[in-house]
Amino acid sequence: MATEAAKNSILNKKTALGIEFGSTRIKAVLVDENHIPIASGDHEWENRLEDGIWTYSLEDIWSGLQDSYSNLVKDVKEKYDVELTEVGAIGFSAMMHGYMAFNEAGDLLVPFRTWRNSMTGQAAKELIELFQYNIPERWSIAHLYQAILNEEPHVKEITFFTTLAGYIHWKMTGEKVLGIGDASGMFPIDMATKDYDAKMIAQFDALIEEKHFPWKLEEILPKALPAGAPAGVLTEEGAALLDVSGKLKAGIPICPPEGDAGTGMVATNSVARRTGNVSAGTSIFGMTVLEKPLENFYPEIDMVTTPSGDLVAMVHANNCTSDLNAWVNIFKEFSESFGMKVDMNDLYGTLYRKALEGDPDCGGLLSYGFFSGEFIMGMEEGRPLFVRKPDSKFNLANFMRTHLYTSMGALKVGMDILTKKEHVEIDKLLGHGGLFKTKGVGQRFMAAAMNTPISVMETAGEGGPWGMALLASYMINKEADETLDHYLAEKVFHGDEGTSMDPDPADVEGFEVFIERFKNGISMEKAAVKDLLS
Fold first, then answer.
1. Any residues with CB less than 8 A from the CB of 25 and at least 6 apart, and which?
2. 349 is in which domain, residue-wise?
């Protein structure tokens, strides 16, 4: 019966498709009218460090999108014996921040600069001083201003700059728009107008006036749109780009494109005030929807918005599971050297669960999983590092626990500012992303790190692309004046709070010991960056 119902949803175009560009995977998720995932497709990819810039090529972007969609179509065909040619609505999301600048002909002027780059320190510092507002190094405006400071010749040719999600949406629809959540990672948003802060735009234009560029900032930013707003339809050109088979029909409505932070909030039903979520994958970030603005501004905390435009405190760390994954692959190699074929899900599960046997403070071990710079910790570059004292308790359980703890380390440093300095109250915190896939491990350690109950839903593994599909569904199915938080609470989650885990007092105490070791040892990481050059 479930298969037949899903098939009818597809045939009657009562579906919504969400496609998200994550750091290591491009995933497409198709949901039915009950918001249940009924098909998916994905494509693995990886960013490259080229000429000192973390980037993905345009070829990688488009071939990855096409492969992800093609795999979704195959999944639909295999499960329901239906050729997918139409859906009810589509939404595209991607990693927030970054810099994609285009000229009048629509050509990309410089390689895509992702969120992972931390070479905009001077720009961020000067803009913070100008605006009296935190401008992180990842933000698009920091990248633009750094290019100006560097006197990069491409700047005078810019007619449009945007994020990866905004770029994909533009090519699908011809519309230069962006969901307000993703837009809030490009330039500060005014909570009163739910648009870019006009005063700060004027300040920026005055700052660069002597450069005599042929553009004003407002002219080259994408238009910011709230969740639910119409954002264009799939054009013939867009359909041909997405579906290389040529079977996908044009005219499908497409919702405002969003960043992965926004889709994470939606996927965990964390868009209402006093709620929060933690997304843990290649990078890690915690989002807390605020009741009121913070008393002070902090370099460690981004002020962004929900997809509806409500104020959010975001703690973003560049590094989470990359080093952890690298160590798991070492164990895979070890197993294969003995002729043992190991299932990766089993391997991850076994090693993660082993960490539960470790000492609450990791037995004196310490690691830094910094593949790239980590602003919260004052790092412009990263060097994965593991260190211990001769008398540390060095065993497999503590080793794995250390790498799981350190994947949350920078996040905890930032979140402690919210909870301990600003006394922000959070009613619930939900976890999603790859770190939570092994049941009861990432959830337990995150509860210890945050010292608050952590809930994980069955949909935690679906994450962003499912959240994007929900935003597409909201656009076409919402009732007049229905808010996003009402739609999610009443029509998607129906009171489902997920499986909650309270922090274990011993784990909390142990994590506090570990985080002091983590903060005190940062000089070793800085020395590794300085001395380990090649």
1. 42, 43, 44, 45
2. 322-407+506-531
Average pLDDT, the chain: 94
The C-alpha atoms of residue 75 and residue 65 are separated, in whole angstroms, by 15
The three-state (H, E, C) secondary structure of 406-465, written as one string: HHCHHHHHHHHHHHHHCCCCCCEEEEECHHHCCCCCHHHHHHHHHCCCEEECHHHHCHHH
Reading the block at residue 9, the tokens are 């949803």
CA dihedral 73, 75, 80, 85 (to 10 degrees): -10
SS3 content of the chain, % helix, strand, coil (to 5): 45, 20, 40
Q: Give the residue among 455, 412, 451, 450 at the shortest CA–CA distance from 430.
A: 455
- Three-state helix/strand/coil letters over 474-488: HHHHCCCCCCHHHHH
Ramachandran region, residue 306 (left: φ > 0; alpha: ψ -120 to 50; beta: rest):
beta
pLDDT per position as a tens digit, 14-47: 999 999 999 889 999 999 999 999 999 999 999 9
Strands 275-280 and 428-432 come out as: parallel
Alpha-carbon distance 212 to 139, whole Å? 23
Map residue 100 onto helix, strand or coil.
Answer: strand
Does the residue 328 lie in any domain?
Answer: yes
* pLDDT confidence of residue 434: 84
Beta carbons within 8 Å of 12's beta carbon, 6+ residues apart? none
Q: How far, in Å, CA of 276 to CA of 430, rounded?
A: 6
Handedness of CA 505, 511, 517, 519 (dihedral sign): negative
| pLDDT under 70: residue ranges of the chain | 1, 459-462, 495, 497, 534
Number of folded domains in the chain?
1
Instruction: Tokens for 347, please give them.
Output: 């391997």
Question: Is the four-CA dihedral 198, 422, 180, 96 of positive or negative sign?
Answer: positive
Per the domain annotation, does 57 fall within a domain? no
The string of pLDDT tens digits covering residues 343-363 is: 999 999 999 999 999 999 999
In a domain, 379, yes or no: yes
How far apart, in Å, are the Cα atoms of 456 and each of 246, 269, 409, 461, 502? 39, 11, 20, 10, 12
Nearest to 21 by CA among 104, 112, 136: 112
Q: Is residue 452 part of a domain?
A: no
Q: Are 258 and 338 in contact (CB under 8 A)?
A: no
SS3 277: strand
> Do the strands 25-31 and 37-44 form a parallel or antiparallel pair, or are they unpaired?
antiparallel
Query: What is the token pair recorded at 160?
Result: 């449009």
Q: 3-state class of 56 per DSSP? A: coil
- Under 8 Å between Cβ of 426 and 276: yes
Strands 454-456 and 428-432: parallel
Kindly give the interhelix angle for 505-520 and 522-531, rounded to the nearest 10 degrees.
40
d(CA 76, CA 85): 11
